[in-house]
Amino acid sequence: MRVLVVGGGIIGCATAYELAKAGAGVVLFERSTPGAEASSAAAGLLALHGEPAQSELARLKLASWRLYPDVVRELRELTGIDVEHVTHGTLYPLARGEAAPAPPAGGSDLGIEVLEGKDLHGLEPALSPRIERAVFLRDDHWLNNQRLVIAYAQAAARAGVDIRPGSNVSRVLVEAGRARAVEADGERVSGDAVLLAAGAWTSELTAPLGVGLTIEPRRGQMLALVHTPPVLTYCVDGEVYLVPRPSGELLIGATVERAGFQRAVTAEGIQSLLQRALELVPSLAGLPIARTWCGFRPWAPDGLPVLGPWPAIEGLWLATGHFRNGILLAPITARLMTDWLTTGKPSVEVGDFLPERFARR
Ligand SMILES: Cc1cc2nc3c(=O)[nH]c(=O)nc-3n(C[C@H](O)[C@H](O)[C@H](O)COP(=O)(O)OP(=O)(O)OC[C@H]3O[C@@H](n4cnc5c(N)ncnc54)[C@H](O)[C@@H]3O)c2cc1C
Fold first, then answer.
1. Domain ranges, residue 210
2. Pair 225, 271 in one domain
3. Could you tell me the pTM of the whole model?
């Protein structure tokens, strides 16, 4: 089987790697460089919170999260890249009277506790004394997503994927109701299946095919402070999140904005991030700003990932719409898409994520 993967973000690179491992021939088209867009802009949190505990998305996130320690090991062995996987845990400040969130379904083994007073401030002394209680999720992890996407791309190349950076796919060629090829820089490239992992740009390729799916960008702005010597040991996730990286930066993120593809970091965006960050940890005030940036999360109208075949066009597959969770969801997405493409059946529950939910509208 020969699969044409469009998009070299974390989703395209991870899926190309797993497909090649499973014996498929894979061509990966990336119009810029691997990881150039949302996958590099992210903070690298593998955060399990944020979904209703019983939802299919919560289950998918937990399943992917459980894959991460092995993925990190495997990629390091193959490529030598250390993705800075940190497993210390995250503190979620609680408002007065606010209850701790329930663990996701299947996650009763996760270390969730509520800390207060000396226990809290002894653990993370830099936290503002105004924070009285916080949930400590001992099992929250984070990593360096820029390194992760490069590690997946290198691993994919070693596994035999034909990676084509600088190659723009202008259209998917559908003949007799089947996706048989793509046009990339004027060249026709044929395959047995076309997998669109083009992130926030996916609709550019689906709209001309009459596919009733709209993927929109949701801009996220972030900044990094110089964090040497470190002020924080743990991730802190309040109205903004603070992510200490071993390589010496403290990431502060992120806005979620409907701003089209305007590639801009704004005064208001950075001001709101810094104001909230300093409310959480006042002693960050003197740290130098290392850099600022923004990226475009792929967002589907119901906010959920879009995974699987498009019903009306044989051979056309989608893996997009990962919105705020694409780094966390990459390993499970890659395995799911590989199992599905190579055996014809999905290996996990996918009812909420099927592309056909948009075909029915
Ligand atoms: C500020 C910010 C913070 C985030 N933080 C986190 C986090 O902490 N944890 C988490 O799990 N997620 C986070 N996310 C979300 C996560 O980054 C995304 O869900 C994920 O990166 C999406 O991956 P992707 O591969 O689908 O998209 P992308 O990384 O955007 O990749 C799509 C690629 O397709 C290419 N492409 C598009 N069209 C074409 C074409 N026609 N031909 C060839 N190539 C094409 C693009 O150049 C791009 O490289 C964050 C996102 C942002 C913006």
1. 2-81+145-215+301-359
2. yes
3. 0.97
